[in-house]
Amino acid sequence: MSPLAAVHYERGDDIDQFLVTACKRLAASGVRLGGLLQVSRGERGGNCAASVHVVDLRTGRTFDIWQDRGACARGCRLDEGGLAQSEIAIRQAIADRVDLLVINRFGRAESLGRGLRECFEAALLAGIPALTAVRPPYDVAWAAFHGGLATDLTCNFAEVLTWASRLHAGSARELRRNDIQRSFDGFPTTRRPSASIRSVPSSL
């Protein structure tokens, strides 16, 4: 199962609330989360929001990533400077080896090779599973980015929770195998258990 996944949604879907609820359920099941969730505030007019923040899942710290260009200004209003500051939370979560990294979007900036794109790469290199959300037209750049290696999810809680839970369970088994192997490695050579005893059952 791929450690990289994206929830595919359409413009107008309340993907922010979906991810908030999914993360609450995952945290309640024991998954250690890190990364960012997006929160839109204020009255919406058409497709516009008064403000958009991202929230550090571990500390609750908020980062303003929306440029104030007036009501419903045309064009992208993402403040990439604010987004770059929020990257600190993601890098720290990777360093602390959380069970699952959540990156609120693979959006316009990431589709152009900017934004938080390098954080996805850093998570994969560190072996940290990552979950994001993507919508058209940025799903084309997302597909090119992962080259068929990511899992495609829909806005369905069961799908997201099953994907994350299976990865979490597999990671826990691997940690247990590593802990057992390290304990064996601490034995002096003359006292190490036989090969048959040192074999770690696949069920661990």
Provide tags for this entry.
204 residues, alpha/beta, 7-stranded mixed β-sheet, 7 helices, globular, disordered C terminus
Structure description:
There is one protein chain. This protein is α/β, with parallel strands linked by helices. It is 42% helix and 17% strand. The chain has 7 helices and 7 strands; from the N terminus they run βαβββαβααβαβαα. The protein has helices spanning 15-28, 80-95, 108-111, 117-126, 138-146, 157-185, 195-198, and strands at 4-8, 33-41, 51-56, 62-64, 100-102, 130-134, 151-153. Strands 4-3-2-5-6-1-7 form a 7-stranded mixed sheet, sandwiched between helices. Helix 1 runs parallel beside helix 6 (157-185) and helix 2 (80-95) packs parallel to helix 4 (117-126). The two termini are 18 Å apart. Residues 175-184 and 186-204 have low confidence and may be disordered.
